[in-house]
Design a protein that fits this description.
This protein has a single domain, classed as BirA Bifunctional Protein, domain 2 (2-Layer Sandwich), CATH 3.30.930. It contains eight helices and five strands. A hairpin with a 2-residue loop joins strand 2 and strand 3. The longest helix has 33 residues.
Amino acid sequence: MAFHGFSAEGVDLLQLNRLQNSKEFYDAHKDEIKRLSIRPFHELIAEMTPEMVKIDPQFVTVPSRMVSRVRRDTRYTKDKTLYRANMWLFFRRARRERESVPAYYFELHPEYWAFGCWGAWGRSEMEALREMILAEDRLFLDAFRAVNSCPQVHLAGEMYKRPKFPDAKPEYQDWLNRKEIGVDYTNSEDFAPVLDGTFVPFMLKTMRQLAPLYRLLLAAKERADAAGREALQ
């Protein structure tokens, strides 16, 4: 089926399911949750896929492997709430369990909707990325220009308290001093575009513009992995 937007009923149902925090309530409303809350994500993936595989033909495009689960994994968190009120999807390559790989995402939350491109979550990946920044590698310069040409997004990621390379160019400091890095577009004011589906062309255009950033994050991941293999030899 074609994507025609998300429904307010689906967003409200996820909130109610989280508030009930009850397997009995979830089981009683499972079919409704699938129809109103999950199926639109699958339809959105189908609409996005032709453009996204132009960015990376190796993206996983099976919806069941791309969309977050309603049931939360509470094994590694103090928050034992059973269900989530927000949902998201990832476009990323196949990965090992719990492995972090560069990804594009879209998220629908009761308080906002967002999308972006992230990567370099590991220390070795950020070290590889910083080397590319300091060397003014072509991949970095392309990504730097791409992000700066997209005022609709902002650079994000937890910052170190002190600059790691204080003598580096001032314009690179915002990139060098992060523990992980990505860019986000976030909108908490206007939900109309996600309810009627008109946000998709804007999102896809931005994701295409950010392709140089994705390629940079992918290169940092590959270099970090190669360095790790060499260290084991």
